[in-house]
Structures
1.
Amino acid sequence: MNTIGRHYIVEASGCNPNVLNDINKVEEILIEAARQANATVVTSTFHHFYPQGVSGVVVVSESHLAIHTWPERGYAALDIYTCGDHTDPKKAVDYVVQHLGAKDVTSTFMLRGIENSGSYEHIMSTTEEKEDSGEKLAVVF
C-alpha cells in the first residue's frame, strides 16, 4: 500500500515521574528517538510547566515527535509522525516508552496519506500492552 506517512498516537502510563518532569531529559529522549527512527532533526522546543509537566516538539525533516507529560499521574501523551520509506517511527515509540519507564502502553497506528481518486485517507489500528500481564491486544478499525 502506497502511503505518505506513518503516525503513532501513544498513551504511556506508569512512567517515571522524575523523568517526566525533567525538561532536559525529556528533550534528550525525544531527540534521540528521532535519530533512532532515522529521521533528520531540524529543531526542537520544550516548555516546563509550574509546578510540573513538560510539553515539547522535535521537528524533523520527515514531520514531528511531540510529547505532553503529567508527572503527578505518571502519564505521557506522545504523537510521532514520519513520512518517507527510510524512517521507522515504531523505533522512536519504542525508544521513548522504554526511557520514560512506561509500564502500560496503548498505541494507535495510522497509515496516512493513502491516495484514493485524488483525495487522501487513512487507516488505523490500536494496540495495548500491559507490563504486568504480558498481554497484547490489537484492535483494527
2.
Amino acid sequence: MLIKIRWFAKGASDAGKAKDLAVVVDTLRCSSAVTTALEQKVNAIYPVSSVEVAFELRESEKFANSYGDPLLMGEVESVKVKGFDLGNSPTELLLRSDLKGRNVLLRTSAGSQVLNSLGGANEPSKIRAIVGCILNARSVASFASRLALKERRNISIICCGYQAREFALEDFLGAGAIVSQISEGSFERSDEAIASCLAFESSVDSLSKVLSETKSGRRLKETGQSEDIEFCSELNKFNGVPIFDGKLISS
C-alpha cells in the first residue's frame, strides 16, 4: 500500500475515484481551525462552497430543522466575512465560550472547496476524509494508517494549496508532518511523500518561522493575524481526529 500526495480539488476528486483514504491538509488555516473548533466541543462543521450558500443555508427552514441555528465561520482572502460569527482563526476560537454543542457552516478559500470536491463516502468505511494538520499530525497518522491497513487502501494526503490553486509550502509541510509519523514498514511512500517528510523534518525546529515566510503566512501578517501562524505550528498539540462523511465534519 502507498502513501501519496495530491493537490487541490482535482487531487481530491482523483483520490475519490481511486477509493483512497483521503487526508485533507490546509495548514493555514482551515484544517487547524476545524481541529480547534472540535476541541472546543463544536458539534459538527458543515463545509460549504461559497459565502452565499452559507447565508442561504442559515436561513433555510429545512437546514434549521436538522442543525438548529448554526454559526457562520470563514474568510475570503484571509479576512473574516462580514456578517459571519467567526473568522477562520483557530486562536479566535480559543477565546469563545459559546461553541459547545453548536453546529457551524464553514466557508474558506481552499479547505472547504477541496472538501466539497470529495463527494459521498467511499466503501467500505463511510469515512470520506480525515482532516489533518500540524496540530494533530500524530493522531491523524495513527488513525489513518490503522484504517487504511484494515481496509487495504492507499492513503492520499490532499494538500489544498494557496487559494486552492497554487503550491503552498505550509500544506506540504503539514503533509510531511503526518507522513513522518506513519511507519515506513507498513506503507510505501511516493517520491512526493518522501520529499514532504524530508522537508518537514528539516524544518521541525523552526516551523513558525518557515510558515511565516510563506505566501499565506505573509498574508496573515498583513491582516494582523500573526498569532495564528505560531499556533498552527504547534506540533501534536491536539489528539482529535476530525472525520468528514461527505457532508459534515465531526470527531
3.
Amino acid sequence: MLNLSDNSIERRIDERTYGAFGMLRSRYTGTWTRRLLAVVGLVVVGLAFLPWTQNIQSTGTITMLRPDQRPQQVPSAIPGRIEQWFVREGQVVAAGDTLVRLSEIKSEYTDPELLLRTREQLAAKTASLDAYTSKITALNDQFTAVTTARDLKLAAARNKTEQARLKVLTDSAGLVAASLNLDVAMAQLARQQALYDQGLKSLTDLEARRMKQQEAEAKQLSALNKLATSRNELANALLDQSTIASEFADKLAKVSSERFSAESGAATTRGEVAKLRNTLANYEARAGFRYLRAPQAGRVTKALQGGIGETVKEGTPILTIVPEETALAVEFYIAPMDLPLLHVGNEVRFLFDGWPAIVFSGWPAVTYGTFPGEVMAIDPVISDNGKYRVLVSERPEAPWPEALRAGGGARGIALLKTVPVWYEVWRQLNGFPPDFYGSPADKEDKKEGK
C-alpha cells in the first residue's frame, strides 16, 4: 500500500488472495487508464462535430384537413318530439337519407290538416282577389261608358249652343233691318206730311204712309222680341251645357271612387294572398324539417339523443356523422418564440399513437416509424393556450396509415437547420432558440441565384 499510516495491514492480510492488490501494483494500470480516457475523449470530440438537425417538438391531435370532412352534428331545425329512428350508430348513410322523424309540440302547428286548411284560405283569398279584379274591370268599362255619354251630350249641347248663337246673330240682323225700315218709313211719313200740308198730297196718301210707318214700327218690335227670345235660348243652351258637365262630373267622380275602393281592396287582398303563400311555404318547409336528413354521405358515429318521445329544442344536436372519405391532418401548437422558424411548406415528422417508432430527433435519417407531413397553415392569431396553432397535412408521396382516426394523438417534430452537435449543446445550455433559416421559398430563391 502507500504506507502513509503506522497501522500496517501487511502482516494481518494475505494480499495474494485478492486480485485488486495485484492490479494496484501492476505497472500497466496507469497506461490503460490513460488510453481509455484518450479514446473516450476522441469519441466525445468526434460526436461533437457530427451533424445535428435542429427541431421543434410538440404534441397534437389528428383532425380532418377540410372543414366539410370533419365530424358533423345534425341538429333539429324545429322543437319537437322524437317519434322514430331510421338509423343506428355505425351505419353508413348517403346524402339525403332520413335519419330521425320528429313530431310538433307547438300548439299552432299540431293540426294534422294545417296545410290543407291553409291552402283553402289561400284559394278563398285568391277568389276574392279575382272578384276585385273583375269589379275593377267593370268599373273601368263603366267609367269609359260614362265618359263617352258625357262627350256625346256635351257635343249635342255645344251644337245647340252654336245654333242659338247663330240665331241670335240672325235675329240681330233682322232687328237692324227693321230699324232701318222704320227710319225710312218715318222719313217718308214726314215728307208726306209736308206735302199734305202744302196741298200737294191727299189725305189718303198721308194715311197710307202713316200705316206703313206703323207697320215698320211693328216689325221692329217683333224683331226686338225675336232677338230677346234667341238670346234667352242661347243662355239656356249654355246653362244646359254646364249642367251636363257638372252632372257627368259627379257620375265620373262616383265611378272613380268606387274604382279606387276596389283597387284598394284588391291591393289589400293581394297582400293577404302573398302573406298566405309565404305562410304556406313556411308550413311546407317546416313539415320537411320534421324529418332529419343526412347532409352528406358518411357514417353515424354517435346518437346524442336517445329513446322515443324525448323532446328536443330548436338547434339541439341529435346525432353525429363522419364522412367516409377524409383527408387527414394534424393540428399542434408551438410557442411564440418558435413561430418565426416555421413556414408553410416546412416538413414535419410525426409519431402517431399506436405505431411503434425508433426516434433520433437530431438524426432523421436513422429514425424509423415516423411519417412526414407538410405545413399547410399557421394561425396568425395566438390561441387561448398562449401558443400558435399549426395545421399539417400528409404528403401524397408518403401517405399516412389508413387506420388513423380523428382525435388520435400525434407527436410532431419540425425539422430545421442542420448544425454540429457541439453547437446544439451550447445553444441548449444557453437557452437560445434554433437558428432561423428562412422559408422553403427563400431556399429555392437562393439556389436559383447561385
